[in-house]
Amino acid sequence: MRSLAAIRARTPKTEMFRGQVQHIMIAILLVAGTCALLRDTGGRFLGVGVITWAKISIAATLIHQISVAVVFRLQLHLDSMVRLFGDKALKVWGILFLPQLFLRPTLVLFAGLASVGTLDGNRQLQIIGGVLLLLPVVWGMHSVIRYFTINRALGGDHFYDKYLNMPMVDKGAFRYSDNAMYSIVFLGFWAIALLTGSWNALVLALFQHAYIWVHMYCTEDPDMRILYSDPPKPEQP
User: Fold this and answer.
1) Cα-based distances in Å from 6 to 9, 69, 70, 84
2) Helices and strands in the chain: count of H runs, count of E runs
């Protein structure tokens, strides 16, 4: 049985920073590239201009993913959240995490509504494509909630041993993708862009999907290697 306490005891604290320099550097490049691609179409939604919505969307995404990286690493290596909140640590993290997660597609939608119809191409095909993309998104979200569970999606294996020792999920969307949340559910951002026919929403969808994979490779993958690698075998006398 895997133990977080044992994992912390044998893992150098320097691992807390692994991948984060790359995370920051890639984030800077992604933000610069995204801002360069945005177009001020003059549209507004709820009295706010499209570029302002786009910049709010980018900022909210940065805050969200940086906060995830900080909490995951502090919890994994120092047990910080559990020390502070005990058995309620994961619930507290959910209260902080989930509103930020839901805000991400909402802000992309607002940017899209502020620039409806600015995406070149056949509008009917865009709507059909957006609707078709929603189908795997709904399936992926159902798979996350039913088979993977929200607590595991919140990073429960960083918090408590019971989540760390749960078997891998191979049902629903996870039967076809080990990381259905990122590869399938995040298609929802592209659906928003197509349904609104918005160039800026399309650019933001690209940013959102690219940046979540930065989180995967710079934060989550190194954590998984620590959490799920076999402990070193004792030396033979």
Assistant:
1) 5, 22, 21, 20
2) 12, 2
Element (H, E) at 72: helix 50-78
- Predicted TM-score (pTM) of this structure: 0.91
3-state DSSP assignment of residue 49: strand
Q: Which residues of the chain have pLDDT under 70?
A: 230-237
| DSSP characters over 147-173 | II-HHHHTTGGGT-HHHHTSPPP-SGG
Which pLDDT value is given to residue 179? Answer: 87
> CA 99 to CA 88: how far, in whole Å?
18
Q: CA 66 from chain center: how many Å?
A: 10
Concatenated DSSP letters of 99-130: HHHHHHHHHHHHHHHTTTT-S-S-HHHHHHHH
**Which H or E element spans position 11?**
none
CB 43 within 8 A of CB 111: no
The pLDDT, as a whole number, for residue 155 is 95
Quick check: 124 and 136 in contact, CB under 8 A?
Answer: no
Query: What are the sequence ranges of the domains in the chain?
Result: 4-228
Q: Rounded to 5, what percent of the chain is helix, strand, coil?
A: 75, 0, 20
